[in-house]
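Researcher: For the annotation table, I need structure tokens for Phosphotransferase. Please keep the output clean. Sequence:
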Amino acid sequence: MGLRRVTSRKGSMADVPSDLLDQINRLEELFTVPTDKLKAITDHFVSELTKGLTEEGGSIPMNPTWCMGFPDGYETGTFLALDMGGTNLRVCEITLTEEKGEFDIIQSKYKMPEELKTGTADELWGYVADCLQQFIEYHHGDEELDQLPLGFTFSYPATQDYIDHGVLQRWTKGFDIDGVEGQDVVPPFEAALAERGVPIKLTALINDTTGTLIASAYTDTEMKIGCIFGTGCNAAYMENCGSIPKLAHMKLDPDHPMAINCEWGAFDNEHQVLPRTPYDIIIDKESPRPGQQAFEKMLAGLYLGEIFRLVLLDLHQNPDCKIFEGQDVGLLDKPYSLDASFLSAIEEDPFENLSETHDLFQNKLGIKATKPELELSHRLAVLIGTRAARLSACGVAAICKKKGWDKAHVGADGSVFNKYPHFKVRGAQALKEILGWPAGKGKGRGDPVEILPAEDGSGVGAALIAALTLKRVQEGNVAGIRDPEGMLKGTRAAKKGDEV
């Protein structure tokens, strides 16, 4: 299947009245991010990355993950991976084979009951342990199992002093369980497993971004950054311990690598450099956490539809430019009634008369849009989608500049990266402008810094990090590991075999 050409619809503006053209021009100015602005954002990003590594409490927290090294592709063994999302719980058993970069995987999904999200901590961890027990009983029957090492993808903001623990900072994804925030989530989880006699040892608690980095590096030695561009946005990359001043007291080997979970959605919470529009300001003010996640609110999938909705509502209420006159805009008036897929559908409308967009407005919003209104809506969707892709490139470019990388592969995952039309091409073009590549580069494939679809971070990545952690313990490198003895019990049993 060939790439679809990104076309401009400027030739379709002939019938657009002057008041709407004026608004389109105003929106072009508001949402276009020129090259010099991209460079300024990137430079500020570099300084904020450095600040986050230097001191606690910066806007970008730069969380050490205690994942200390890339896989070499020759890891072997069987590992479990658990991914606790907002909708499903996924359990995988991953066998890393003798073949370089090869693995076998079996997996099961379990529905996350809504009532658990506002229940008790005991109910939550009990349910998770029950699912793991079911998985093992189904796939292993009555086998006598040694302790299976587990990589747990816990994609909620957590601080980690050790790779096998994590203190929940705050619940997201609809969870609101009392008594868990501010606590280490590992002991109650392990207690639920022990109560049921499930032969599992949590070896690594990871963020999905770190998993994305490690899983992608397993099959691609040029992989240096893992990114998520989905409902939210984030990145992880490998830093030298000597470049993390806030860990200096731990006397780590300065040349030893450590994966850093940037949590970069909070970049520029101080509003120093990002080109926020009046609509971005409204989104921030009316969000559950004003003043937080400034970067994320301009480019993540959760917000793209809301920016679009706010602009259209503003134009409808503008006495100088009334769109959708005489129509009931009640559905458009509802916050977060549109998501990123609405904009995707508009951008993908293949018809010159935008008939699919016309049907979309009528079916979703009960609005019969005129041809000029459709043209404006299409242009607005392009502007919002393009801005998101161009801003996303600033974070990637900042890590490359900070590390002095002229070439790198970047593994990216998430619904916006995978599904939003032209996101990859627009991001590649912005990288070219920021990093100053020669003419001809900036199309994506073959660029010096290339953003590629990532491997399965929450499954294979979690298992690999468990494998790497176990390998470290066996080598006697226990920095950032709370319970190395507990991790070794299962492997000792496996080695002694019948003697145990």
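Researcher: And a one-line annotation?
Model: The chain has 15 helices and 13 strands.
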